Amino acid sequence: MKKYFLAFVILLSFSADGAPLPSQKGQVVLPSKESSVEFVAIGRPTALKIRGKGGIPEGSFFIQKNEVTGSVEVILENFDTGIGLRNEHMRKKYLEIEKFPKAKLEVKKMILPPSFWREENTSFKEVAYEGVLSLHGVSRSVQGVFELEKRADHISVQASFTLKLSDFGIMTPNFKGITVAQDVQVIVSFLAPLKKI
Amino acid sequence: MVRYGYFNCTSCHVSPTGEGILTPYGRSLSREILSTWGKETEPEFAYDMLSLPPWMNLTGKYRSVYMYRDTPRVREGRYILMQLDLEGALNYKGLGLVGVLGRKATTKADTWQDHIFSRRHYINFRPSDEVSLRLGKFHHAFGINVPDHIIPTKRALGWDQGEETYNFEAALLKEQVGAHVTAVSGNPNVGKAEREKGLAVTATIFLWDRLKPGVSYFWGDKKDQRRHVFGPYGILGFTPSFFLLTELDFQFLKPQTEKEQKGLVNYQRLDYEWVQGFHTYVTQEMSRLDFKNKKARSDAYGFGLQFFPRPHFEFNLLWQKQRTLSISPEYFDFAWLMFNFYL
Fold first, then answer.
1. Looking at the domain assignment, is residue A13 inside a domain?
2. Mean pLDDT split into 10-residue runs, chain A, 197 residues
3. How far is residue A193 from each of residues A33, A61, B245, measured CA to CA in Å?
4. Residue A179: which CATH number?
5. Distance from B205 to chain A by nearest Cα, in Å?
6. CATH number at residue B209
């Protein structure tokens, strides 16, 4: 009986193709070589697209089996919309970065498809996740989608979500007849090594 | 402004096709991203010495050029006063009234009233952010709308300054796509036989927040001829400092009594902004509106400097090598220095 049990345990530690199962635990640390946070806002009534670039995500994610936990922070002062006066208004008047210098996204529910550990190279798109965004002194839950590509020991991720300015107590930006729409899309991207632990 | 992510002209101009009076936001951008120097209130109307109600925009414009040409027939330098205009816009809840009153350069003037005319006036209704309806006198949308009105894609096609027509325009102005459809009823300043009626259609798309390629089509009909003009164009901002304006138009012209003429015109300007407000550029342009007539061809290559020192001011110097085969097979020198001031 003992012999059979031992054989069963050994069998469990191998996958269907005979190879040993990986540890199914990993960590991603940011910032990495290619990591960024951007936002896209729309100015009305002229459908003006305002893209804020230059945000660098800092933090780490842990992957256990197919569940992801962790958080990233971004220093808001680094965002650049391409126009000096607009940056000044964004930082001082609307985001009030002296009082609230960082934004933080904490992942609450992010489930990877089963192929993530099973296959060395895999990718998937439009996977939903939930998190809590802390911005401008307010924390609220946000929902978004992400896409992921795994190549050997690196993963590339692009996660996005939409926030509503008024949910975070941010005044509606308005300048000389152009008013920024309430919904702002945030995009977090990175290519980082996946450290198996 | 496409290179800064401004896809629609209406951020900076009252007109949906981007000419004429600036919006308050456009005035502010003239200091922020167009001019080398400038103080905070400097771009405002009359340097902020006069305060206007929020529903009113006013401007004045002085535009002149000193032109030099050295051809086998003539060598001359000449000052030309191109525009001395007052323009006003009234806006109330999506409804806008725009009008220009200016000095007309003419030799057929008996009284001072003959020197006054309106190059542009229209009613603009915006039922939503993305839709614009316009009725009045203005240049219909077609290709790139640049102030340089003597380029082949403007003058050679009959869309020079002073050739504005009465139109009805419907425009779609979205974040990623734009379209203009214009019913053209002709230029009121010419006789009925010369008045060309037609339809103009343009469509553009916004790619990677910096590239604005598009296509245009015009169908025109007047007493003794019909024509189709169509072609691609692009306002392509490779970086915020480096951009290309390009347009190529084919024309099929069918005069009533003569054979069909097929031809093309093009214009290109490759521009680099060294420091904010200071540009150098090269141009290439060609007009060949009848492929069968080898002499109906002109082309030019040029080098230019453009400088926006402060809000309200613009200097533009272009030196070209021009060739007009109907005059001479040789290239000759043509240069102009343009000065523009708006209040």
1. no
2. 53 48 82 89 90 94 93 96 93 96 96 90 94 97 95 92 97 93 96 90
3. 10, 11, 42
4. 2.40.128.110
5. 13
6. 2.40.160.10
